[in-house]
Amino acid sequence: MKRKTIHVSQETGKFMFCLFFIFLPCCCHVCFSELSLDQTNTMIELSRFLNISDWNLPGSEMNPCSWNGVLCSGQDNGSVISISVSGFDISNSSFLPVVCKLKTLESLDVSNNSLSLIPDGFVTTCERLLGLKHLNLSSNKFSSSPSFRGFSKLVVLDFSYNSLSGKIPDYGFDGLVQLRSLNLSFNSLTGSVPVNLSKRLEKLEVSDNFLTGTIPEGIEDYQELTLIDLSDNQLVGSIPSSLGNLTKLESLILSNNKLSGSIPESLSRIQTLRRFAANRNHFTGVIPSGITKNLANLDLSFNNLNGSIPGDLLSQLKLVSVDLSSNQLVGWIPRSISPGLFRLRLGSNMLRGPVPSAAFESLQNLTYLEMENNRLTGHIPHAFGNLQSLNLLNLAMNEFTGILPLSFGNLTRLQVIKLQQNKLTGVIPDTIKLLINLLILDISWNSLSGSIPPSLSQLKTLSNMNLQGNHLSGTIPENIGDLKNLIELQLGDNQLSGRIPVMPPKLQISLNLSYNMFQGPIPASLFQLDRLEVLDLSNNNFSGEIPPSGSLISLRQLILSNNQLTGNMPRFTHNVLVNISGNPGIKSRNKDEVSIKRRPTGKSKLVMVVIFVCLGVLALVAGITTVIVLKLSRRFKGNNNMQVDPDEEGSTVLPEVIHGKLLTSNAIHRSNINFTKAVEAVGHPENALHQTMFWSYYRVVMPSGSSYLIKKLNTRDRVFQQASSEQLELELEMLGKLHHTNIMVPLAYVLYSEGCLLVYDFSHMYNLYDVLHNQTSDVVDWTSRYSIAVGIAQGISYLHGSKSSGRDPILLPDLSSKKIMLKSLTEPLVGDIELFKVIDPSKSNSSLSAVAGTIGYIPPEYAYTMRVTMAGNVYSFGVILLELLTGRPAVSEGRELAKWVQSHSSQQEQCNNILDVRVSKTSSVATKQMLRALSVALACINISPGARPKMKTVLRMLTRL
Ligand SMILES: *[C@@H]1O[C@H](CO)[C@@H](O)[C@H](O)[C@H]1NC(C)=O
Ligand SMILES: *[C@@H]1O[C@H](CO)[C@@H](O)[C@H](O)[C@H]1NC(C)=O
Ligand SMILES: *[C@@H]1O[C@H](CO)[C@@H](O)[C@H](O)[C@H]1NC(C)=O
Ligand SMILES: *[C@@H]1O[C@H](CO)[C@@H](O)[C@H](O)[C@H]1NC(C)=O
Fold first, then answer.
1. How many angstroms separate the alpha carbon of residue 295 from the centre of ligand 2?
2. Which is nearest to 523 in space by CA: 487, 499, 505?
3. Boundaries of each Protein kinase domain copy (predicted)?
4. The pTM is what?
5. How far is the CA of 51 from the centre of ligand 1 (A)?
6. Residue 697: its pLDDT value, please?
């Protein structure tokens, strides 16, 4: 098959070759441009400045019009009209004045480079260009700009994503009489919203700056405006009602400012307005009636709006999305809701009364419905069963009574259902088994009774189940272990009793059986959950001895208090908080052992390193990376004593090196690394350091005496690419070519009869997680944390690449603080970059796919999309940034840090409390920077992947702190 293809392409080649000669005479005319000698010379001059490979091919100087990014006009390509050098990583701007020697130039795009300076010559030559209409300078490092007054023909000026600072008027945009689009978003500009602009202006984007003052009254003079984006600034005052005179306005975005006053009714006069976002401001008063008459999207969330929701607000036919959450709205939910509505968020208000059942009968498109944290009463309408598109239903924290409607069984698309903290009664209906896509079921803190239906275990995709705080009785269904994807099970505060069955194997966040009526010995099977972090069996009647704890290798907290246990305290080789109070029969060796203290803290770094090397093995087991992705055919054998796989023990025949390759160009490493020694060394148990789901780690001393870190791929799992070692080698070689100070690149690889080894510098030994959370050293100060954050952002941006890098982005399926290695307290390295290349997601059939990564870092959308994305990496980075800012781990006590921060960051005062006080209290500068970094982190963990900034932008935002 392959040979045939080659054959065909050779034939085609010959054919093309002939054609070339046949048509040569007329081809000439097209190939060799009519570009004037003048312009040709200018282009050649430019090509020397720019070093773009395609522009410098031998012979290419014959026809600059064919160069990548160059556009010529006219049938005979008489003149250059457009040049785009976007994404070539250009940092030297001396080419800019040369460009403007092209008198015919109409469009210049230099976006996505590293330009920092606009040379004076650019203005003097370019402002003479009579045709220059489009100038795109976005995504560079410009910190100042000349006056553009002379560019009288400019129509579009994009200066977004730079480092411009100072007041806008100083930039002189006022002479641009033809300007229709001005984008200054994502800079550090101060002053007020510019007004002296061309009256032809259609788009004004100045979001994400430090603009102050009010929305100028005069803005109504810009009758052509279709888009106004003033979001993420510090604007005060109210929305001028004269905005209602802008008859062509389509989008008005005022989010995240300090605007106040009421929402002007005049906006409803704008027939073209489709999107109005005024969320996260200080708006007060009632929402005017008619405001949604023409809108598709309305966002007024996080304000202080009061009064009731106007009766016509939700009924307008063009509406797609309405968000009124986190205001002080009162009254009832309107009785009429538009049938096309896709998203409705009314959470955290003071809405009362029953849900208007009839209104929900025919909302075929409703996908997200959130009404949590109100005072809604009555029954959950049976009509909800008709919401066939519903993915998310959140009615938590209301006063709903009655039973769970049987019609819920119709909601087969439902992924998240949250009904906790209501007054629901009756039993959990058997129809719940029909919700085959359910991921999260939270019906805790109600008054549900009866037993847990065994059919629940048919919900194969379920990851979190919370039935805590009800009146459930009987036993736990015998087949609950069938919930193969369950990572959290909360059954506390019920009246459960009887035999405890084998639990779902992937439980990780928490298993809570506290405050029930269980008795007898603790089943040994509970102590075999090797991923579990919190086990709470307190306040039952368990008796007998505590089972051996050897398999609880991920445990952080064990709560056994108030039972009738006897015998000895469990011993752990790693940090576990144990509470066994209220068990009179437990022999305490000494008082301190009621709660095992964390390890003593070492003062100097030397001590820290020593501790790390000696105990690091244990610490790493404690913090073992638990990856929930794999559908393992056999349980992961995480042995505490760090033995290598049993099959390798006692093997006398040395495994054979199939192929080894040095990837580094460093001469010292090249002479040190010995493949045979590497292969031999991983066969010796004493060289093993630790093991994670994907890798086993070894320290290997080469014959030269230098140590190296070796990662061995646990290849037997079926998610690994088994297809071709050739492919794997290609990928590894590609990775070996990466050069960046913030990524951990393998120095060499070895394929041998039992798998694949990757060789690294041994100095990269401690990881960020341990340094931040294991408290073996002094508190890391803000300067170091900031430097670590910037370094990680640099590493990830590099991996994500740019157009000019000429490769696909390298994505990180499992990005967490444990994957960030530290060369020093200021130099992070992003590790495990190989993972994406060596696992094959299509081989995994678990619900979260091979995608998921580590709990606490997994973006919410992965549950739906099952795909690793750049936006997903940004989310995980956001969580790491939060760890640096709060000093808390990504998951603690069963709660995800990201969610905790999101729920505590709406108020400025609360933000201060989120920060790690050990660090933020050291100086007001630190506090200020940390608060700004917090807003970057919040942007990264945005629920909506599309709203998260790109990694390159995140980096820019961080360096601008
Ligand atoms: C031009 O780019 C190539 C790689 O694309 C590089 O090897 C070379 O050093 C560059 N030359 C200059 C003058 O920057
Ligand atoms: C603009 O709006 C104001 C009040 O909102 C109104 O009095 C005025 O007539 C309008 N001007 C124009 C030109 O429509
Ligand atoms: C529901 O959404 C679909 C697809 O977006 C759209 O075609 C349809 O008109 C919508 N239904 C209603 C009732 O608006
Ligand atoms: C929803 O479920 C109820 C009861 O389970 C059933 O009577 C009704 O026909 C279902 N509706 C739809 C639209 O499937």
1. 21
2. 499
3. 683-961
4. 0.66
5. 6
6. 82
